[in-house]
Amino acid sequence: MITASQKSRGFDRSTNGADSASAASSGLGLLSPHAVVGLVCAGLIAAGLAFRDELDLSASDGVGYALGIVGLSAMTLLLGYSLRKRIKLLRQAGPIRTWFELHLMLGLIGPTAILYHAGFELGSMNSTISLACVLAVSGSGVGGRYLYGRMHRSLAGPRRTVANYTRSAVAALKPIESVLERAPAARRQIDAFASDATADPSLFTLPFRAATTRLRSFWVKRRVLRSIRNASRPHVIAPPVREAVSEFFGDLNRGVELRLFEKLFALWHAIHVPLTVILFISAGIHVVAVHLY
Q1: Which end of the chain offers a freer environment for a tag, N or C, measured as fewer CB atoms within 10 Å?
Q2: Which pLDDT score, from 0 to 100, does residue 250 have?
Q3: Tens digits of per-residue pLDDT, 157-196?
């Protein structure tokens, strides 16, 4: 009965990471193009740091200069994703997923090239500020990619919502309503936990709630099942009942965690966009200063 309910709801439970094949096809797995590029770039950066004294690159000419152009070009081209989303004329220029994939890859390639351009060393004040901006934007982008993966079912795909998790939790209990009617203590415990889990606290208290919700739900679930068992004749719990209760608490737990990711993503967006603007201003000043002075 519970399995049929789950199928009728069609709810995506890939947040647990149990379905690795689904994660790979979603474009968010470790074999996705941007993940492979990220691993390659991480290896190149590690090698550059380890052998930076042996690097024979000059930022003012040759390969080192070319890498600076490559890095700045990559950081500029990644803006195409934002333009693709906002300009109507570009909405037919290929799938948004492809643009997003390129955005992620260019955001990794650009900083790697610029680090080699700088020889993994700090230069003048202007170049140091430009390098810091590049690394800050890239680092915030990596963090944003993690938050994005927690909030979406696939790359540039539909977004998970707290409301969906809440509805799914309520639907999970419908097949056992008659059982809960005979166990009022269990119903009170369920309602109290649901009220607390669906509240919308501030960002300052939400991390603690998200970090402890699974532990709290573990103990509440034990009390709920005990109350159901005590109210049953005989004192046993049918597997479908136990499964329904587990589904209920699991959905609410995921809803609490998703609410945290949503708030963090909003904060990330408020930081990432200004950092990108500062990056291009500092890069423009750096390019002008280098060629004029």
Answers
A1: C
A2: 94
A3: 788 899 999 999 999 999 999 999 999 999 999 999 999 9
Whether the CB-CB separation of 15 and 254 falls below 8 Å is answered with yes
- Using CA atoms, how far apart are residues 135 and 252, in angstroms rounded to an integer? 37
Tokens of 95: 């799938």
Note whether 176 and 242 are within 8 A (CB): no
Query: What's the pLDDT score for residue 11?
Result: 47
DSSP 51: T
SS3 label, residue 61: strand
Token duo for residue 68? 């600076």
Give dist(CA 198, CA 249) in Å, integer: 12
Beta strands in 83-179 (DSSP E): none
pTM above 0.70, yes or no: yes
Task: Quote the longest CA-to-CA distance of the chain.
Answer: 88
**CB crowding 191-208: b at 16 or more within 10 Å, else e:** eebbeebbeebeeeebee
The distance of Cα 197 from the centroid of its chain, to the nearest Å, equals: 21
d(CA 27, CA 41) in angstroms, rounded, equals 19
**22: burial class by Cβ within 10 Å (0-12, 13-18, 19+)?**
middle
User: Residue 87: its pLDDT value, please?
Assistant: 84
